[in-house]
Design goal:
Helix content: 25-40%
Largest sheet: 7 strands, mixed
Oligomer: single chain
Distance between the termini: 87 Å
CATH superfamily of the largest domain: 2-enoyl-CoA Hydratase, Chain A, domain 1
CATH class of the largest domain: Alpha Beta
Radius of gyration: 26 Å
Length: 468
């Protein structure tokens, strides 16, 4: 076989046979495969680089670059993952994250710790809130901006970082952290109590509770959500927060929606060939029909906006916030042979379901845009629009980011952070009230639920309706 064909065979193993990848098998390329002619310009470019390029260009970089470029040309969501990236994605979708778990912020021109995620290396090292970061890996912290310092202290898996910290009493300590995997819950409350347990009650007397889903993981999200729901005390109104949720597994999102619906189509997916898969709601296991508000924003995407849109389409929930991202496509991950990483491909798109009283289902995106997407175009249509549009100011978003970071981390000992009087409210209640004061979208959700609960308890008039 000629040198030209030998080089080509090395590249075509990963470039050709996408159909075979979709069938979950290693591509087998014959010398007469039409893909060789289709991709001949890629080989020509590779030979020119090898013959005339100044830099060394090994075959591994060639085929990785070819796959990366080809995936980007499919659509905006398809991509190539190197072996390490593919492993981290797999683990992340199971609810395990990598890093040190340390969270920092900037205060009065200094870098200070917010705290550590429970169970993370930083938490196990005893790093709490309010410590000043003096140096990172021997370099004084004053040389780093917050944006530069954050990735340095979090580190990828296996990375190490040495931190010199000043404690509240003025003592300087050195901590060396080794990044590693640690479990991160995908279902949370608004704040943690002194024991580190999530608090879901927004207004205990009114029975209004808060559940946030940060991502739909493969198995844990549905289990965590149901366990959290069962712990709610007398739920009479629920706020489901899907803001910032990038999606995840569609099946997990459909199971959650099924808990709030007793029938009908939740969502259906349609492939390029017209094959359909329909997710139905079932009466078994449906939660009581208490009022439900779903919070969404521009970072609510994919499976998360399908969950929000399905609840809205069935009239089961009121959506508050900002329009969702508009990512209504299904991605599937396919492993490349020989441990060469994975290819994430768009394989279908979503259609929302509708109640049984409405025979036709409503597509999330217009059919005309699907052809443009298949042809390599980008669907820029708006996402799901909320019923009540509420914007957050830039200053409110910055304040909320800091407050939420404090709420996520493990609580510090009361002596280190709690300066309230002994008879005052606990620290977690003060943090909850601060979040409610800064978060106009959440405050609107609570106000709406209170109005509905109040209307439901007013005595009926002569016509059988609640009195105004």
């Amino acid at each position: 076989m000629s040198r030209r064909n030998l080089i080509w065979m090395a590249i075509i193993l990963c470039l050709a046979g996408l159909a075979a990848l979709l069938a979950h098998r290693q591509p087998e390329v014959a010398p007469s495969d039409p893909a060789i002619d289709d991709l001949a310009p890629a080989l020509e470019a590779y030979e020119l680089i090898q013959a005339h390029g100044y830099a060394d260009f090994p075959p591994e970089r060639a085929w990785q670059g070819a796959i990366e470029g080809m995936a980007r040309r499919v659509d905006e969501y398809s991509r190539y993952l190197s072996p390490g990236q593919a492993d981290q994605l797999d683990v992340g979708l199971t609810g395990t994250h990598f890093g040190t778990g340390l969270r920092i912020t900037e205060s009065a021109g200094r870098l200070v710790t917010v705290g550590a995620l429970p169970g993370s290396p930083a938490d196990l090292a005893g790093i709490g809130a309010g410590l000043e970061v003096l140096a990172i890996d021997g370099v004084e912290a004053r040389y780093f901006s917050l944006e530069q310092a954050r990735p340095l202290v979090r580190r990828p898996v296996g990375g190490e970082v040495e931190l010199r910290l000043r404690e509240r009493g003025g003592e300087t300590v050195v901590r060396r952290l080794v990044a590693g995997p640690h479990a991160v819950p995908s279902v949370t409350g608004l704040v943690r109590d002194a024991d580190g347990e999530w608090v879901h009650a927004l207004d205990p007397e009114a029975g209004i509770h808060y559940l946030r889903v940060t991502e739909f993981t493969e198995r844990r999200s549905t289990q965590e959500f149901h366990e959290a729901y069962r712990r709610l005390a007398r739920p009479r109104g629920i706020v489901l927060d899907l803001r910032g949720n990038p999606g995840g597994y569609l099946q997990a999102a459909a199971v959650l929606v099924d808990r709030f619906l007793d029938g009908g189509v939740i969502v259906r997916t349609v492939t390029r060939k017209g094959d359909e898969y329909v997710h139905h709601a079932h009466p078994a296991g449906t939660y009581p029909p208490v009022p439900l508000v779903v919070l969404v924003n521009g970072r609510t995407a994919s499976a998360a906006e399908i969950a929000a849109g399905a609840l809205q389409a069935h009239g089961r929930a009121v959506l508050i916030g900002r329009p969702t991202r508009g990512k209504f496509h299904v991605q599937s991950q396919f492993a490349l042979g020989g441990g060469r990483g994975s290819l994430v491909l768009t394989t279908a798109r979503y259609f929302l379901g509708a109640p049984a009283t409405r025979p036709a289902t409503r597509p999330v995106t217009q059919p005309a845009t699907a052809a443009a997407t298949r042809a390599g175009g980008t669907d820029r249509r708006a996402g799901i629009r909320p019923d009540v549009d509420v914007r957050l100011t830039a200053s409110a978003r910055r304040e909320l980011a800091l407050l939420r970071a404090r709420a996520m981390v493990a609580p510090s000992p009361p002596a280190a952070t709690d300066s309230a009087p002994a008879d005052g409210p606990p620290a977690h209640e003060r943090l909850r009230d601060a979040i409610l004061a800064a978060d106009a979208q959440l405050a609107e959700a609570v106000a709406l639920l209170k109005r509905r609960l109040a209307a439901a308890t007013r005595p009926a008039g002569p016509d059988g309706r609640a009195r105004p």
